[in-house]
Design goal:
Elements: H1 2-24, H2 38-51, H3 55-73, H4 78-81, H5 83-100, E1 109-115, E2 118-122, E3 128-136, E4 139-143, E5 149-160, E6 163-167, E7 173-181, E8 184-187, E9 198-206, E10 209-213
Parallel strand pairs: 1-3, 2-4, 3-5, 4-6, 5-9, 6-10, 7-9, 8-10
């Protein structure tokens, strides 16, 4: 299912790229100019993530894309309204436990959010069922080396203009299913064995990336 999602997103991006190319060559009829701008790409990718169930990254992409669309094409002056970004970030931090991460306090999951900042944390969960890492203009260093995941545990990663390092044991059987736009995600563990549980790492990297490491 996840591999199909990746193929669909790839096809989606190919179609967008072709439409932009045909428009730049002048072969399309007049279409509102705001449809041919980079913020619209963020909105479209956000809508795709919304349809495929990745709610957090979808909301972030749509909000960021919409903000810059207003700035570029609707007389919305960024120099006047940029404090709205700070207000939104503040609200995220205030309500994150109730809205974004209702299960953060449990022992079986974790949620790490960094916006214009960074973190270095160790999570020890037994069992570990799920986790979420979000970095927007920020970064994180997450140590999961002492956690014991259940079979099929899922870790969701969203990075925009940032990055993350995740330290995991060498024996985890990792299934990496991330989508990168001008970014990447790689497994840099020193040695790898396949005797441990299967853990799925999925997410979106936009102008950012992540690395898997081991001690």
């Amino acid at each position: 299912m996840e591999s199909n999602r990746k193929r669909i997103l790839g096809l989606f991006l190919v179609l967008i790229g072709l439409l932009f190319l045909v428009n730049n060559l002048g072969y399309l009829p007049p279409i509102p100019h705001y449809l041919w701008s980079w913020p619209m790409i963020l909105v479209l990718v956000g809508l795709f993530n919304l349809l495929t169930g990745n709610i957090r990254s979808a909301v972030i992409l749509i909000l960021v894309g919409g903000f810059f669309l207003l700035n570029l094409h609707a007389g919305f002056e960024l120099r006047t309204y940029w404090p709205v970004i700070l207000v939104v970030i503040g609200l995220v931090y205030i309500f994150r436990n109730r809205v974004i991460a209702p299960s953060k306090s449990t022992e079986s999951s974790f949620d790490d959010i960094n916006i214009f900042g960074g973190s270095e944390k160790r999570f020890v969960s037994d069992p570990l069922k799920s986790g979420r890492i979000t970095n927007i203009f920020g970064g994180s260093d997450i140590d999961l080396s002492e956690s014991k995941p259940i079979e099929g545990a899922t870790i969701e990663v969203f990075t925009m203009f940032g990055g993350c390092d995740i330290t995991v044991p060498n024996n985890w059987q990792l299934e990496i299913d991330t989508v990168a736009v001008f970014g990447g995600f790689s497994d840099k563990r020193k040695t790898i064995t396949t005797t441990g549980p299967r853990v799925v790492i999925k997410g979106v990297m936009i102008f950012g990336g992540g690395d898997l490491k081991s001690h």
